Amino acid sequence: MFGKERSRFGEFIDWHGIKQEKIREISKVSRETISRVCKNRDYMPAGKTMKALVDAVRKLTGKQVKSDDFWM
Q1: Any idea what DSSP says for residue 49?
Q2: Residue 65 contacts by C-beta under 8 Å, 6 or more apart in sequence?
Q3: How many whole angstroms separate alpha carbon 12 and alpha carbon 5?
Q4: Helices 20-27 & 47-61, crossing angle to 10 degrees?
Q5: Is residue 47 within 8 Å of residue 62, measured between CB atoms?
Q6: 8-state DSSP, 51
Q7: Would you say 45 and 37 are in contact if contact means Cβ atoms under 8 Å apart?
Q8: Which of 18, 24, 38, 68 is the most buried (most CB within 10 A)?
Q9: Nearest in space to 25 (alpha carbons), one of 34, 16, 14
Q10: The pTM is what?
Q11: CA 15, CA 13: separation in Å to the nearest integer?
Q12: Residue 63 CB contacts under 8 Å (≥ 6 apart), including other chains
């Protein structure tokens, strides 16, 4: 998207039309963390946070994504 720097996670949810707020509702991760995860390519969330985000994306998309798809 124009004007927004996005991480791989941010690009993925944008591509699938998922709002950050929906991810927050399902994952119970704070708005600040989700914002950081979606913007910063270098940010590596904690393991528990990573799992919550991946589980939320799986639920919303039906895709069998894994944390390696977004963070290395």
Answers
A1: H
A2: 12, 54, 57, 58
A3: 13
A4: 110
A5: no
A6: H
A7: yes
A8: 38
A9: 34
A10: 0.90
A11: 5
A12: 57
